[in-house]
Write a structure and sequence with these properties.
By secondary structure, the protein is of the alpha/beta class. The protein has 14 helices and 10 strands. The chain folds into 2 domains: about 90 residues, Winged helix-like DNA-binding domain superfamily/Winged helix DNA-binding domain (Arc Repressor Mutant, subunit A); about 230 residues, Rossmann fold (3-Layer(aba) Sandwich), CATH 3.40.50. The model has no long low-confidence stretch (mean pLDDT about 95).
Length: about 350
């Protein structure tokens, strides 16, 4: 027995217990407005923060101490705590691609399904996307939306061959697996000559997407319908999958359907989690987060559907390319990437 190795791992597991609890701490900080009240405010006492947020000093004091222990806030002495400006971006600025507060909401919702997943591990059954805690759906939108806002219109769409010109002159676009419609609405705002249809199998998400489109004033050019990737209707110049193909039971079948739904010169924008092609390529913090989400959310979702391919969130480009080519696409090209996503162009 290597005592040093034992103690090193013990320290890691204790830190991970704190990290697990820290997810709940982060969601509390977000929901109660604690982070937002601290942003740019300088050092505050627990009492001052409680007064600003309409919360109770004793709870806030313990929360601040926990946050200081994990390094999310700084204890500056005399019972005062500060949120560094750099941390505030990550925890509060939902216009920044560095903001990951939605990931905490998503993770906490996923952890709620631990009991159900214990049974699923034994039976091999899936757990449907809509069966998870309701915070999952908002959390996913909040996690992915900042990255879409920063990259979709400025970088990803222009990287596709000839697509922006079509969008500017008037194209028909399908956003498959659209969730609450963040990506659909962003495109509609940028390209008023085009029309957009968002499809998702989760009815409550479609209802939310319709509300968001109305709030943004794009309801006349954007519609949202309940449909799966295997049966959505219509033909399109551009079909988009944003962080969802790997969740589908039959991604190959979805790609085959899209081949039929594309105009002759149409394009597919496939956005998937950043991943290498081997486990070794993904042994890093982003891989750890995505493998965790994949175990609790993505793989169970796929296994709950027909075929149950269970690609997982870390499928990698080679596996995605194999599926696309097998479905009838002639070319797959990586056109962009971020720390969290790879962006592929699929054409006939």
């Amino acid at each position: 027995m290597d005592e040093t190795k034992l103690m090193d791992f013990l320290h890691k597991t204790v830190a991970d217990v704190g990290t697990l609890l820290g997810g709940s701490m982060a969601v509390l900080g977000d929901r109660l407005g604690l982070y937002r009240a601290m942003a740019g405010a300088g050092p505050l006492t627990a009492g001052e923060l409680a007064e600003r947020t309409g919360t109770t000093e004793r709870y806030v004091r313990e929360w601040l101490s926990a946050q200081a222990a994990t390094g999310y806030v700084e204890h500056v002495g005399d019972g005062r705590f500060a949120l560094p400006d750099e941390h505030a971006v990550v925890l509060t600025d939902e216009s920044s691609p560095a903001c990951v507060i939605g990931a905490f909401e998503t993770a906490l919702a996923a952890v709620h399904s631990t009991d159900r997943l214990t049974d699923a591990f034994r039976s091999g059954d899936g757990v449907g996307w809509g069966e998870h805690h309701h915070d999952l759906f908002e959390g996913c939108e909040r996690f992915f939306r900042p990255g879409y806002q920063a990259n979709l219109v400025s970088t990803w769409l222009p990287a596709l061959d000839g697509v922006v010109a079509k969008l500017e002159s008037g194209a028909r676009v399908a956003d498959v697996g659209c969730g609450h419609g963040a990506s659909t609405i962003l495109m509609a705002e940028a390209y008023p000559a085009s029309t957009f249809v968002g499809f998702d199998a989760h009815g409550p998400s479609i209802e939310e997407a319709r509300k968001h489109a109305a709030d943004k004033g794009v309801g006349e050019r954007v519609s949202f319908e309940v449909a799966t990737a295997l049966d959505f209707p219509g033909t399109y110049d551009l079909v988009c999958f944003f962080d969802c193909l790997h969740d589908m039971g039959d991604p190959a079948g979805a790609c085959r359907h899209v081949v039929q739904a594309l105009e002759d010169d149409g394009t597919v924008l496939l956005v998937e989690p950043m991943a290498g092609d081997t486990v070794e390529d993904n042994l890093n913090p982003v891989g750890a987060a995505y493998y965790g989400f994949s175990t609790l959310l993505c793989t169970p979702s796929s296994l709950s559907q027909d075929v149950g391919t269970a690609l997982g969130a870390q499928a990698g480009e080679a596996r995605l390319r194999e599926i696309a080519i097998g479905a009838g696409f002639g070319q797959v090209r990586r056109v962009a990437e971020t720390p969290f996503n790879m962006v592929l162009e699929l054409t006939r």
